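Let us practice reading a record.
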Amino acid sequence: MKQAIVNSFRRVKQWLQSLSFRTGVIVLMCCIPFYILSFAQMLLPISATAKGILWTVLFGLAKTFQYGGLTILGVEGYKRLKSKFKKNTRETAG
């Protein structure tokens, strides 16, 4: 049973890593609205229990998109994205 779960996770990880850089960036950026919603829902006039459940679900979705996007990008994609942001900030500053 444990080996079947490990193999399933391995297959999902391999599938995610086979997706394109652009897909990784899109999935990674999808975490932003869920982070915002997870805290903004605290302003709703609903019970504390409902707020706790909403926060857990929305924050969990944000983390899922974040880690999924990072898995798709991989180490090389992350370095590529980081250098792109550094290059843009140097161009605007200089």
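A brief commentary: The chain has a mean pLDDT of 88.
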